[in-house]
Amino acid sequence: MAKKNKINLFNGERNERYDYIVTKEQPLSYTAESFQKVIINLDYVNIDGKHKVIEFTSALASEGKSTFVSNIAFLLGQKNKKIILLDLDLRKPKMHRVFNAPNKNGLTDYLSGKIEFSQLIKHSDEIGIDYIVTGEKTTAVVNVLEALKMKELIQKLRETYDYVLLDAPPVIAVSDALYIAKNADGVIFIVAQGVAKKSLVKEAIQTLKTNHVPIIGTVLTQVSLKNNSYGYGYDYSYKYEE
C-alpha cells in the first residue's frame, strides 16, 4: 500500500548566491523552517534506511536544485548525520561555488587516477559536511558516470556516510541523470514554478519512471506568492511503500 503526503511551504525572498546557505544564515526564518519540514519528511521516507544515496535532479536548469541540496546537506549535518555531497553535474558544475573552493582534485581526477582517494574528499568546517567537486572538465561524461570505479566509489561512500547526496544535471537537457540514478537509491525531483512547462515536467518524470528510477519526493521552488511578491517555497511529496 502506498501513502502519499504533501506539504505546501512558503517563505521569503530567494537568494541567488550559491554560497549563501539560508538555513545557516537565517536559522529562525520561515525559509529555514520550510527546509526543516522537508528534513522531517525525508527522515520519514527513510525510516528503514533504504535511501542513503539520494539524487537531486530537475527537468531544466535554473530550478533551484543546487541551492536546495546544499541547504538540505547543511541541516542534515546539523542533526549529527555524516553527510557527503557530490557534484555530478560534470558539464556545468556549481558545488565548488557553494563551498568557495577551487574546482580541482575532484571526481574526474580521481577516476582517471591522477589523485588518490585521500585527496578527493574535502571538508567544509563552515557548513559542517564533506564534499566532492567535479574536477577537471571532460568530454567523456557518460564514460565517467558509467565507470566501474565510479560505482565502487559510491559503494565506499555508502558504507561511510549516513547520506550521500548527488547533485545531478537536469533530465531533459542530457541523459546524465539516468546514468547517475543507477548508483542512487532514489531521486528527489525539483520543480521551479514558471521555469519548466508542465509538459516538460511530465516528460522528465515519465523518463525517470520509464527507466525504473524511484522518485521518492518532489519539491516545488520559486513560488510566486499571492501578494505578487517573489517567494521561495517547497511542495514536498513522497510515497512510502509498506
Descriptive labels:
Rossmann fold, 22% strand, 242 residues, alpha/beta, disordered C terminus, 10 helices, two-stranded antiparallel ribbon
> How does CATH name the architecture?
3-Layer(aba) Sandwich
What is the average of the pLDDT values?
Answer: 84
Q: What profile does the largest beta sheet have? A: 7 strands, mixed
Question: How many distinct beta strands?
Answer: 9
The fourth-level CATH homologous superfamily is: P-loop containing nucleotide triphosphate hydrolases
Q: List the uncertain runs.
A: 1-15, 227-242
Q: Write out the strand line-up for the largest beta sheet, numbering strands in chain order.
A: 4-5-3-6-2-7-8
Order of helices and strands: EHHEHEHHHEEHHEHEHEE
CATH-assigned fold name? Rossmann fold
Beta-strand residue fraction: 15-25%
**Could you estimate the helical fraction of the residues in percent?**
25-40%
**CATH C-level category:** Alpha Beta
Helix and strand arrangement:
Elements: E1 2-9, H1 22-25, H2 30-45, E2 53-58, H3 65-78, E3 83-87, H4 95-98, H5 107-111, H6 117-120, E4 122-124, E5 129-132, H7 141-145, H8 148-160, E6 163-167, H9 176-181, E7 186-192, H10 198-210, E8 215-221, E9 234-241
Parallel strand pairs: 2-6, 2-7, 3-5, 3-6, 7-8
Antiparallel strand pairs: 1-9, 4-5
Helix pairs in contact: 2-3
